[in-house]
Amino acid sequence: MYSEGKQIGGTTHAKRRRLRVFFAGRVQGVGFRPAAYRLARDLELGGAVWNDPSGAVVEIEGNTEAVEEFLARLPGVLPAIASIESVRFEEMEPSGSWDFEVLESRVGTSARGSLPPDTALCPDCRRELEDPEDPRFRYPFITCSNCGPRFSIVRYLPYDRERTSMACFPLCEYCASQYRDPSDRRFHAEPLSCPSCGPHLFFVEAGSAVASVLRPDASGGLQVSSAGRNYQEVIARAKHMLSRGGVVAVKGL
Predict the structure, then answer these.
(1) From the CB of residue 193, how many other CB atoms can be counted at a distance below 10 Å?
(2) Torsion sign (Cα): 179, 180, 186, 189
(3) Is the Cα dihedral 134, 135, 141, 145 positive or negative?
(4) Which of 19-28, 61-70, 95-104 shows the lowest mean pLDDT across its residues?
(5) Residue 144: is it exposed, middle or buried by C-beta count within 10 angstroms (0-12/13-18/19+)?
(6) Close Cβ partners of 195 (under 8 Å, ≥ 6 residues apart)
(7) How many CB atoms within 10 Å of residue 44?
(8) How far apart are CA 239 and CA 251, in angstroms?
(9) Is 109 exposed, middle or buried (0-12, 13-18, 19+ CB in 10 A)?
(10) Distance (Å, whole) CA 197 – CA 116
(11) What pTM value is reported for the model?
(12) SS3 108
């Protein structure tokens, strides 16, 4: 459906088109929304992208050529881990929108989407992990939109932080600024955290009290002590235990 000669912002735009596109497949937790956002902004398209229980939904509005270019280019700009299995279109009446945004997910009763897999550390995160000047230097839970835990922490779809094990770790301002920044590779990265706001790794030998590495915080909760934040020491103790023929049990989030 086209809107001929619509007056927007003082300029006449002919053949303006708006589509709602439903994407099914591995499209949640794989950087789909950030990729769609950046491409739409590059092409000066209006609309929005969001997750729903069945996959991802994109509404795009602009001139016909730009809309078609968006659809043609989107598969090529998605991270390699993403996989589109099917696409369904709905023509909509143009609204005159020039802004593109990432909306909150829409929760339904029937989740048919694919759960995103856990993925190994990407080269960018590995560089940060090994950089003494980086805030996430040697942080075991480093992640971004391109790597890290997904399947092992999600409770149910649509995939958002509030429906994962990370829900109990509010973002600090540093992480929140990256989460909100479209130019950052952690834009809308749901498992995002850092040593200031995220989970910590600690080692407790059988027969020892977990309280030995935990202490009360100001809010009445528990916080990992400074001894429990020495990640190299934690790994070294686990390796030593294994080298002696011991058993190391790993508890996840």
Answers:
(1) 23
(2) positive
(3) negative
(4) 95-104
(5) buried
(6) 135, 136, 139, 229
(7) 11
(8) 16
(9) exposed
(10) 24
(11) 0.76
(12) coil
Tokens of 78: 């998605």
111 vs 45, higher pLDDT? 45
Select from 35, 161, 158 the least CA-distant residue to 105. 158
Cα–Cα distance for residue pair 38/216, rounded to 1 Å = 43
Residues in the chain: 253
Residues 6+ apart with CB under 8 A from 90: 19, 20, 21, 22
Position with higher pLDDT, 55 vs 113:
55
Residue with tokens 């995220």: 198
- CATH 3.30.70.100 holds for 2-102: yes
Say how far apart CA 92 and CA 102 lie, in whole Å. 19
The structural domains of the chain, with segments of one domain joined by +, span: 2-102
Strands 6-8 and 11-13 turn out to be: antiparallel
With beta carbons less than 8 A apart as the criterion, state whether 172 and 196 touch: yes
Nearest CA to 191 out of 222, 155, 217, 232 is that of 155
Share of the chain above pLDDT 90, in %: 62
